[in-house]
Write a structure and sequence with these properties.
With about 375 residues, the protein is α/β, with parallel strands linked by helices. About 35% of the residues lie in helices and about 15% in strands. A ten-stranded mixed beta sheet has the order 7-6-5-4-3-2-1-8-9-10.
Length: about 375
């Protein structure tokens, strides 16, 4: 069997976190499923997960898969456990399938020894930060309310200085109360090879903070201009590169934009197979499928109705989105941001105005820079 399968496997190595970020949708949001799950994934869960990933890679003839070691804070499980699980997956997938492994960490627990274990095990390190200054990270505190910035910045620079080949980059949630250019330039000081800028999770029933006008779109546009006019690529910014690609009619592989089928699946610490964590920002149990790695295959997860609708492309979008000239670029925005209580997810994004502002802004810059026609708009059906 070949065809569209999952290509990104997000495995919860640990279900708890050593930080208590005040805005965390996972632990401070409506979902409470984490409370009844084991703190760490047991060896039998990891063993079965590795087998299921290999089984899926084989049945879909995948030549590469992304293995995301996640949490909570995955380093609470131990660097050796992370590297050992990665080695297990690589040993079990078909010989023609490459496993790209990355750990998403807050970096506070990184040490030279742990970094060496991960780097030697072929695991790249992605760091979560709100900016490159202490003031930017004021909401990222530990359970005693102490700032995480000193340890987090030390961990990020440790990767940059001692294992640059294993540095995947920095993930940052947009905070429109911060100066956009200052935030971007402060992150550059941590020398990330890539930045992943994410809009804060929110929806029509629980709107994101500071949602007035197109404030988030304006923030992103300001950072885009700083990035676009630098004269050289100081770092990759995934959202910007994907937006440019889509405007040029090229394929995209991001959940935030475009119409590509969603290809990620989550395995929780108890072996439950779930949808993306972002759905947990909508309501309690939103990511649940009722499946697990002991009784079910990932192909069964692909056939789950909630997963299938995310593979449906245009057919799964709201009428307003389907008639929008920016459809092929915006793609309806992030799925979790479309939710409205009583109406499900078949709505435009709560960030619709922001996405329109940002996409039009990028299109204008792109048009000015190249004589090549830009596939900015699509005729309404």
């Amino acid at each position: 069997m070949s065809g569209q399968g999952f290509r990104q496997f997000i495995v919860k190595m640990h279900g708890r976190c050593n930080l208590a970020c005040t805005y965390c949708y996972l632990y401070e949001g409506p979902d409470r499923t984490w409370r009844t799950r084991p703190g760490a994934a047991a060896p039998e869960v990891l063993d079965r997960t590795a087998t299921r990933i290999a089984e899926h890679a084989r049945s879909h003839a995948l030549t590469a898969v992304s293995l995301v070691l996640h949490g909570g804070e995955p380093l609470l499980a131990g660097a050796e456990t992370l590297a050992g699980f990665t080695a297990l997956v690589r040993a079990r997938v078909p010989a023609h399938c490459t496993v790209h492994a990355v750990v998403q960490t807050n970096a506070t627990l990184l040490t030279a020894r742990r970094l060496a274990v991960l780097a030697d095990g072929g695991v790249r390190i992605a760091v979560s930060l709100d900016g490159g200054l202490a003031a930017h990270n004021a909401r990222r505190v530990d359970h005693a309310g102490r700032p995480s910035w000193p340890a987090a910045s030390r961990g990020a620079l440790l990767v940059a200085e001692h294992a640059p080949q294993a540095y995947a980059g920095i993930l940052t949630v947009v905070d429109v109360t911060l100066d956009p250019v200052e935030t971007y330039e402060s992150l550059l000081a941590l020398r990330p090879p890539a930045l992943n800028l994410l809009l804060p999770h929110g929806n029509w029933s629980a709107p994101p903070p500071h949602r007035t006008g197109a404030r988030h779109g304006e923030w992103l546009s300001a950072v885009f201009d700083r990035w676009w006019t630098a004269g050289r690529r100081e770092t990759r910014v995934r959202l910007f590169e994907e937006c440019v690609a889509l405007l040029l009619g090229l394929p995209s592989a991001t959940e935030a934009l475009g119409l590509a089928p969603f290809d990620a699946v989550v395995v929780e610490t108890d072996g439950s197979i779930e949808q993306a964590d972002s759905l947990k920002s909508a309501y309690d149990g939103a990511a649940r499928t009722g499946l697990d790695v002991f009784r079910n295959t990932f192909d069964e997860a692909l056939r789950h109705p909630a997963v299938a609708v995310r593979q449906a492309g245009v057919a799964g979008l709201a009428d307003q989105c389907r008639s929008c000239p920016l459809l092929t670029v915006c793609g309806g925005g992030h799925y979790a941001h479309r939710y409205r209580a009583g109406h499900g997810f078949r709505n435009p994004s709560v960030y619709c105005a922001d996405l329109q502002h940002f996409i039009h802004h990028v299109a204008t810059r792109l048009t000015a820079a190249t004589p090549v026609p830009v596939a900015r708009e699509r005729s309404a059906p």
